[in-house]
Specification:
The complex is a heterodimer of chains A (289) and B (312). Chain A is mostly helical and 289 residues long. Chain A has one domain: MetI-like fold, CATH 1.10.3720.10. Chain A is 75% helix and 1% strand. Chain A contains eleven helices and two strands; from the N terminus they run ααββααααααααα. A two-stranded antiparallel ribbon of chain A has the order 1-2. The N and C termini of chain A lie far apart (49 Å). The model of chain A has no long low-confidence stretch (mean pLDDT 89). By secondary structure, chain B is mostly helical. Chain B has a domain of 202 residues: MetI-like fold. Helix content of chain B is 75%, strand content 1%. Chain B contains 13 helices and two strands, in the order αααββαααααααααα. Chain B has a two-stranded antiparallel sheet. In chain B, a hairpin with a 7-residue loop joins β1 and β2. Chain B is flat. The chains are: A mainly alpha (289), B mainly alpha (312). At the A-B interface, α1, α3, α4, α5 and α6 of A face α2, α4, α5, α6 and α7 of B.
Chain lengths: 289, 312
């Protein structure tokens, strides 16, 4: 009576077949990450040395190191964070703690989705039109970083909003019923309980900002500069643009050099990403509610 | 501030229960500040549109002709005799590359989303999710470099073609770039299907696969469509990787082995060489307006679809 019918057997066989197929598809999708990392380490690894990291490019960028580009990327990321973190955290606090579900909130959410979805080259055009020309910052670290800040604003907003909303509502209600205002509640209860989540988002933003190329091409990053930037109104080299330049624009670059630059760039980006992921997992393990 | 505010509040106290003390005013002030932060997102989107239009408008009002702009395959911005700005070939290049990317990315990322969300659990699932996140984190210029230095010789060898920088190369790379966002959003959509749907189906004797195919996927349909749309938007707007891997030659592609040029890549390659305010410069900004409007529509539709699910 309980014997499997043909139909049952067919369904079971199908199930394991399809499971295997889906597993294989997932594998194919993530295999390239491993291959890419492997190739970059093998080809670029030998190029990397202290001298490579801390010396200037020489002989028309066909030899030497990446120091000015490395410093430039750090400048760009730091200035971009100074602009986008306060703004993004404020926006997230508004959306999570103050806003009611009305048309304005819907518009803000739509705008955030669009800021994340607009092509990076359109952000670059915006940076040229707004920061370089209209606000007259010229091609400078300031203009490039502000362009990057606008572009990566959604990363901070979304991460911060998520970690604010992960704080149980009961915490807030307990605080309000003691007579605290919304802001007192946020400052004393909500933010202390979500600050590590916000930090995770900020690290993720560093990773995004460091890798972007198109938005800084016309707003502040230069192909080659023999000196380090002295302030936010100077132009600068950047790792991402440097990789583009030596792999497409400069003839006669020895093969190991762009691999080395790519390895340093992806190392910066992925280590930031890994820190962010590890931090998040650690927090999840520590959570008491 | 904490001294002056209570004095101000003193004057408009109506009764003994008025609690507008310093903390109340601070709260209002913070409310205003974070409100401005929230509204800034809208201002930036408007700002993007306004500032790009401001630079591109000179062309749109002067010599813009839709039939030439959209209908001509002649992209000769630097011609001495008569520059022509037809974006049809560039648009076709973008469409060919993004189309191929979607052919690759849609099945694989939906498959991966089902595998990660429904079939794997515990440590495996965590590791797979981290790897997908890593895939998303690789910068586009690194993808472009991979197209140049790894995919290019590989395609030349494997298919015996003279040039490896073509639709196939850029399409595969864009597919891999668009896959993580599609996988993540599709997996979220699957996760949003309530567990008691699955339990009810399993109680009726359905196999795991029948549960997924007959119950979970139909329920999550809208979220999956939104995931695909966002992936399309991502592929469509990608710049550096396409610039480096597509061959960057103005061409109406007839096979995957033809080199093409994309709209985004054209702006990236040519803006640096144009004089500020020249016609060529304004045309590039006009392409920017066009790209902005298309991605805006894609995102709007995806958002409306997702919102449709939440209402239900």
């Amino acid at each position: 009576m309980f014997e499997a019918t043909n139909r049952n057997r067919w369904a079971r066989r199908n199930q394991s077949l399809i499971g295997a197929l889906l597993g294989f598809m997932t594998f194919v999708l993530i295999l390239p990450v491993l291959i890419i990392l492997g190739v970059l380490v093998v080809e670029g690894g030998p190029a990397i040395s202290w001298e490579f990291l801390f010396s200037e490019p020489t002989q028309g960028m066909t030899a030497g190191g990446v120091f000015p580009a490395l410093v430039g990327t750090i400048w760009l990321v730091v200035v971009a964070l100074l602009a986008s973190v306060p703004l993004g955290v404020a926006a997230a606090i508004y959306l999570s703690e103050y806003a009611s579900d009305n048309w304005l909130t819907r518009f803000i959410n739509l705008a955030i989705i669009n800021l994340a979805g607009v092509p990076s080259i359109v952000h670059a055009l915006f940076g040229v039109g707004a920061f370089v020309l209209f606000f007259n910052f010229g091609t400078s670290i300031l203009a490039a970083s502000l362009t990057l800040a606008v572009m990566t604003l959604p990363v901070v907003i979304v991460a911060t909003r998520e970690s604010l909303q992960a704080v149980p509502q009961a915490f807030r209600e307990a605080c309000w019923s003691m007579g605290a205002t919304r802001w007192q509640t946020i400052r004393k209860v909500v933010l202390p309980n979500s600050i590590s989540g916000i930090l995770t988002g900020v690290i993720l933003e560093v990773s995004r900002t460091a890798g972007e190329t198109a938005p800084i091409m016309f707003t502040g990053a230069a192909f080659f500069l023999p000196f380090l930037p002295q302030g936010v109104l100077d132009q600068t080299m950047a790792m991402s643009l440097h990789l583009f330049v030596i792999s497409t624009q400069v003839p006669g670059v020895p093969e190991h050099l762009p691999y080395g630059v790519a390895l340093v760039l992806i190392g910066m980006v992925l280590s930031m990403n890994a820190i962010s992921i590890a931090f998040r997992m650690y927090l999840r393990g520590k959570k008491k509610w | 501030m904490s001294d002056s505010v209570p004095a101000a509040s003193q004057s408009n106290r109506g009764d003994d229960f008025d609690r507008r003390d310093a903390a109340w005013y601070v709260d209002r002030l913070v409310h205003l500040l974070v409100f401005l932060g929230g509204v800034s997102a809208i201002l930036f989107i408007l700002g993007i549109f306004v500032f790009i239009t401001r630079e591109g408008l000179g062309y749109l009002t002067a010599s813009f002709s839709p039939s030439e702009f959209f209908g001509s395959i002649e992209w000769r911005p630097t011609s001495d005799t008569k520059p022509t700005y037809g974006i049809l070939a560039l648009l076709t290049g973008t469409a060919a590359v993004s189309g191929l990317a979607m052919v690759v990315a849609i099945p694989f990322s939906l498959g991966a989303a089902i595998f990660i969300g429904e079939l794997s659990e515990g440590k495996t699932r965590e590791i797979l999710k981290v790897l997908v996140e890593m895939l998303a984190a690789i910068p586009s210029v690194v993808w472009g470099f991979i197209g140049l230095s790894i995919m290019n010789p590989f395609i030349i060898d494997a298919f015996d073609v003279p040039v490896g920088l073509n639709v196939l190369n850029a399409g595969l790379i864009l597919g891999l770039m668009a896959a993580p966002i599609m996988t993540t959003i599709a997996e979220d959509a699957l996760k949003a299907v309530p567990d008691h749907y699955r339990e009810a189906a399993e109680a009726m004797g359905a196999t795991r696969w029948q549960v997924i195919f007959r119950v979970v996927l139909p329920t999550a349909k809208n979220g999956l469509v939104a995931a695909v749309l966002l992936g399309v938007g991502r592929a469509f707007g990608e710049t550096m990787a396409v610039l480096m891997a597509s061959g960057h030659s103005v061409n109406m592609p007839t096979s995957p082995f033809d080199s093409v040029r994309a709209l985004t890549a054209t702006i990236a390659a040519e803006l640096g060489e144009t004089a500020h305010g020249s016609e060529h410069y304004r045309v590039l900004f006009t392409i920017g307006i066009f790209l902005f409007l298309i991605t805006f529509c894609i995102n709007l539709i995806a958002d409306l679809i997702v919102r449709g699910i939440r209402k239900k």
